[in-house]
Amino acid sequence: MEWSRPLTLCFLVGALLFVSAGAAPAQLLQAPPPPTPGLAPAPAAPPPLRTRYFTSLTNLEVETYLQYNDVIVVPIGNIQAHGTLPVDCEYVTAEAIALRMAEGANGLVFPYLQFTYPGDGIIGRGTVRVSQAEGLAYLKLLARSLLRQGFKRQIYVTAGNSAAPQTVSPLVLEFFYESKTPVLYIEADVLLRQVNADLTKVMFGAYSIVNRLNDIPVNFTPDVPKHDIDQGLAKLRVLSSSGGARDGIVGFLMFEDDAGAPLKAVTAEQRAAWAKEGTAMIDAAVKRADMKKIVESLLDHQRFTREYLVPKFDHLLP
């Protein structure tokens, strides 16, 4: 019949629509193919730092840095008479070494802490007198602030001042007892001795590293005045019964801190030569220290302290 052909076509179309409608849900329920095996995407590299100095960064730059790292290196020094060198030479030496350490550890430098206990060289109106207790109290306030800001790995650096441990050693210990966060003190003189560095040349190199070499005077007059020698103290030192201001075994004063400081004027040529040699000595000492390994080890120590020692022994800790 003529009308049977349209009916047949309608039946076929309807059947095809039914089959396709039933197949669509089946295709949607199929599991996606497994991902191609491979490594996770590498984390984004931190943006380059415009400067290592904390105080020269904007707040936004500090915030960005703390998203990737938490290392801050804090040079600590003093202001005291030091032969023909500027009175801040021991701070500048610590600052230059701290800068090199920060470069090796991808850290920041927290500067300007020149005013702490000067030790024995307090006879002279170029010396600023701050006691150990006064310096310690101030440094602890800064350490607490830095921790709150996010700088968990704090590294304190001194150089050239044998009395510095009287202030900085109590800082790291008392701060740990209060915060349960280990911070590190590096007495750079130990590193410098390991590379047989000459402290006078190191100081010249330090001024060069921080772009202040011209602050060291040349052809300086008059010469540093000479004073009588404390024979009793000299004998005690020979007998090894006193290490001086560092160990606090006997009190004493010195007119000019001539340990490592030149007492005679230098020429411009000598200043430049010593600066070059001193810079190389600083670089060798910091390279030997291996700052990358130091900050990694400090992180491991902090993690072990936080995850094991404190939970286990917190009831015994001060």
Question: What report would you give on this structure?
Answer:
With 318 residues, the protein is mainly alpha-helical. 48% of the residues lie in helices and 5% in strands. It has 10 helices and 4 strands; from the N terminus they run ααβαβαβαβααααα. It has helices at 4-28, 59-66, 89-105, 132-149, 165-179, 188-194, 199-209, 231-238, 268-289, 291-313, and strands spanning 71-75, 108-109, 153-158, 184-187. It is globular.
Topology:
Blueprint lengths: L3 H25 L30 H8 L4 E5 L13 H17 L2 E2 L22 H18 L3 E6 L6 H15 L4 E4 H7 L4 H11 L21 H8 L29 H22 L1 H23 L5
Parallel strand pairs: 1-2, 1-3, 3-4
Helix pairs in contact: 3-7, 3-9, 3-10, 4-5, 6-9, 7-9
**Main sheet makeup:** 4 strands, parallel
Question: C-alpha Rg, in Å?
Answer: 32 Å
CATH architecture: 3-Layer(aba) Sandwich
CATH first level: Alpha Beta
Number of helices: 10
| The CATH H-level homologous superfamily | Creatininase
Along the chain, the helix and strand elements come as HHEHEHEHEHHHHH
Strand % is 5-15%
Report the count of strand segments: 4
Low-confidence stretches: 9-13, 15-21
In helices, the fraction of residues equals: 40-55%
Adjacency order of strands in the biggest sheet: 2-1-3-4
CATH topology type: Rossmann fold
Q: Structural class from helices and strands?
A: mainly alpha
The figure for the number of domains is: 1
